Amino acid sequence: MKRAFKTIGIFLSAILLLASCSSDDDEPEMKNSANEGVVYNGHGEAVNSSPLSVFLSEELRLPYWDVKGLGHYTFFSYKVLDGHIIDYLQDSCIVINSIEEFRLAYHGTKTIPEINFTNNTLLICRTHGSDISRLGEVGLSDQGDEYELRYKILHYLERTSLCVEWPIYYWRLSPKLQKKPIVMIRKDIHIGEG
User: Fold this and answer.
1) 45-52 contacts: CB < 8 A, separation 24 or more?
2) Residue 156 CA from chain centroid, whole number
3) DSSP 114-175
4) Which of 7, 63, 79, 108 has its CB 3.0 to 4.6 Å from that of 73, i.e. a possible disulfide?
């Protein structure tokens, strides 16, 4: 009898293990590395102590206005209508190949970190999701006249959500890229649907 219960226990454990490895796990969240990171509307953590990682985790966010009414912007331009930002959900990508381009792209007041752009390109992208969304896999491919940036937005439906859309910023320091358009291709994946 004990042997039968032990066999049933092993069988049930195997079933639970397989269930936990269901299709939800086929969509892994992007892993931060030393050369890339994600910032959720100004709530990023530096993935390492490099000056670039710290700088971008602090500076990738929506513009804000201080107590004096002065607007503070970082990398992306925004349209304002009647005091409200109206285009912050528009997907956009910036390719930066030099320190001069970095200075032109950044509209903030902090000193930008030094980067060796000889063999590197800084890619900064903006997409959007709600408070239950996370950036999944990201892949960049050269299509000849343009690059394709394919990415997944994972929506965890079992979490409580305020359903407010916010920007999601992604950055990567990659091998040198040519200056050509980047087409962003988004795939939304709903995890936890019944």
Assistant:
1) 50/113, 51/113, 51/114, 52/113, 52/115, 52/122, 52/173
2) 15
3) P---SSEEEEEEEEEE-TTEEEEEEEEEE-SSSEEEEEEEEEETTS------EEEEEEEEEE
4) 63
| Total count of residues recorded for the chain | 194
Q: Are 143 and 181 in contact (CB under 8 A)?
A: no
Helix %, strand %, coil % for the chain, to 5? 20, 35, 45
Q: Are 85 and 62 in contact (CB under 8 A)?
A: yes
> Band of the pLDDT at 31, cuts 50, 70, 90?
very low
Dihedral, CA of residue 76, residue 27, residue 149 and residue 109, to nearest 10: 20
pLDDT in tens, 154-178: 988 776 666 677 888 899 999 999 9
**Hunting for tokens 């969240």 — which residue is that?**
29
**101: phi > 0 → left, psi -120 to 50 → alpha, else beta; which?**
alpha
Q: Are 168 and 126 spatial neighbours (Cβ–Cβ below 8 Å)?
A: yes
Question: Rounded to an integer, what distance in angstroms lies between the CA atom of residue 138 and that of residue 44?
Answer: 17
- This prediction has a pTM of 0.72
Tell me: the pLDDT tens digits for 117-131?
Answer: 999 999 999 888 887
DSSP 8-state secondary structure symbol assigned to residue 76? S
What number of other Cβ atoms are within 10 A of residue 45's Cβ? 12
